[in-house]
């Protein structure tokens, strides 16, 4: 008898190759606005973007401000003035256009769907994630789709995961497994309500704060999504 009936998947860097898609999108935007795209230029963007995300997670800035300001600051660093809202729209478009997936992800999730109720849980922006799912042919694939912008809470908050369980018919903490690449958002987040977790460790990065993360251990660890078969079947 299967232990789990519901599989909850993070999207970015679990099903979608977000880093690959981001590289493509940023290269297109930078070239269009006269900035040579190099590894160093990419690193400047990611540092600025990370800082703004941290401010957003602390409630200091809005999602809209984050989305637009990261491009304004990035280009300003090189003496180029841009319209942040236009850059953000182009960024979303190119993210969906790239449509890059994690290794064998499509085949694996379609196979698992034969035996499990499939749910997605992401901190992404609704418009972007819906477009990417549509481009990948996964528009109506998941039984339920939880996006932080719609839920009103972000992973790793307990409220986000409580909403997933409460709003998915038949799901309990005991019969669901959270699968994701982010130790803080996915593993720590789901563990806060007592849910089993599977850490997809293709690029393992375990944060050291907040302090309570230090005592958290995933129920399972995998290096490729195909390893889910031996865990859940």
From TrEMBL:
Keyword Hydrolase: yes
The keyword Hydrolase belongs to this UniProt entry's keyword annotation: yes
InterPro entries: HAD-like_sf (IPR036412), HAD-SF_hydro_IA (IPR006439), HAD-SF_hydro_IA_YjjG/PynA (IPR011951), HAD_2 (IPR041492), HAD_sf (IPR023214), PGP-like_dom2 (IPR023198), Pyrimidine_5'-ntase_YjjG (IPR052550)
Domain of life: Bacteria
SUPFAM superfamilies noted in UniProt: HAD-like
Pfam families: HAD_2
Keywords associated with the record: Hydrolase
A GO term for molecular function: 5'-nucleotidase activity
PANTHER family: PTHR47478, PYRIMIDINE 5'-NUCLEOTIDASE YJJG
Name the UniProt record assigns to this protein: TIGR02254 family HAD hydrolase
Organism name: Granulicatella elegans ATCC 700633
